[in-house]
């Protein structure tokens, strides 16, 4: 993969990113041969359009990339990423003098466009490379791209090669690379360590359930990331239809995203103490599978009535969140591919998040905009609390009726996060349904860049 910028060189060829209103003034300053060439190719600076400009000897000497009209610019993400695959081999540089926002998005999009998932079939990579745009932090963008690539690789790997064992191995490899500590609780040991919900969800699989616990850093505020690691979700005894199982390798997208985010944090050596908790399970069907109607204990002591075994993600997260709360971290974040309701509400691009902390919400929203990582706050709507209280047990894992599914799931998790000063939950999709610039079809990280960007403000780093 090509996830790094080229070193600075005086021979780098310029890329000019122009909107329709900028094209004529730019052309007016160019030689006649350039004006004629651009006009002959019908380049109008439409969004994503690209034209190579040849030198008098016929070799490429520059490229123009269209930004589209300013009024429609928000419709297209990572415009430069779209052009990367069409540029010929060589070192290029961004010559446009646009603001920091566009330069940053262009830098990120360029690197993300270098990602390919090539584990099972040969992949072709872009031949063009680019120097880091002026004013951009090269280390930041390269570490972000590497973390995103890790997330995508983990999600894209099918479940036969990415079960709880393999997810543990991926976490251990990351821990070893950055000198982090690892502790793993497997199988019946989960019951001995009072993690009964994780055990209940994963016990039907031939692949033992586990809790992966990684720690890094010795000074600074404490941050705990909890990621849902359901390596495949059949739905359990409430079996999913076949069409709904097709993308269930991505149901560990929360785990993949927190591991990618952890890589970003450790690569940038942020001054904090990081803990990553991943309940890694496979929700399968066998004689000892948990059942609809069961009432299960949790680490926190709350009882949970099971009304749908396909609402398993909140169960494994509940025990992990309860464990995290016991050390009272300064910031607790859970990430999960949790509800279809979140997709219906916001679609595949935007990751909803929930928090009661106003400064945290503002920081996440701002960092999401700055990092080209769109997020949107949804409410912990307390009048819906009775919907998760079945009467026969403390909590209901799947309220009937279908209303506000993302909110009721978040309210369920908040019950286990009580006692931490700052908590946010992200209900991500983790999947790009069709190819787009910088985002090939398949696994994708969501929310990680927003969280990374918010950490300095939130924690005073």
Structure commentary:
The chain folds into 2 domains: 13-136, Leucine Aminopeptidase, subunit E, domain 1, CATH 3.40.220.10; 141-459, Aminopeptidase, CATH 3.40.630. By secondary structure, the chain is an alpha/beta fold. The protein is elongated. The strands form 4 sheets. Strands 6, 7, 8, 9, 10, 13, 14, 15 and 17 form a 9-stranded mixed beta sheet that branches. A 5-stranded mixed beta sheet has the order 2-3-1-4-5. Strands 11-12-16 form a 3-stranded mixed beta sheet. The protein has 15 helices and 19 strands. The model has no long low-confidence stretch (mean pLDDT 96). Strand 2 (50-54) and strand 3 form a beta hairpin. The protein is 34% helix and 20% strand. Keywords: Aminopeptidase, Hydrolase, Manganese, Protease. One of its GO terms (cellular component) is cytoplasm. One of its GO terms (biological process) is proteolysis.
The number of strands is 19
- Average pLDDT over all residues: 96
Give the terminus-to-terminus CA distance: 32 Å
Query: What low-confidence regions span 5 or more consecutive residues with pLDDT below 50?
Result: none
CATH architecture of the largest domain: 3-Layer(aba) Sandwich
The overall number of domains is 2
Assembly of the depicted chains: single chain
CATH superfamily placement of the largest domain = Zn peptidases
Q: How is the CATH topology of the largest domain named?
A: Aminopeptidase
The CATH C-level class name of the largest domain: Alpha Beta
Radius of gyration: 24 Å
Largest sheet: 9 strands, mixed
**Helical residues, percent:** 25-40%
What is the global morphology? elongated
Count of runs of 4 or more consecutive helical residues: 15
β content, as a range? 15-25%
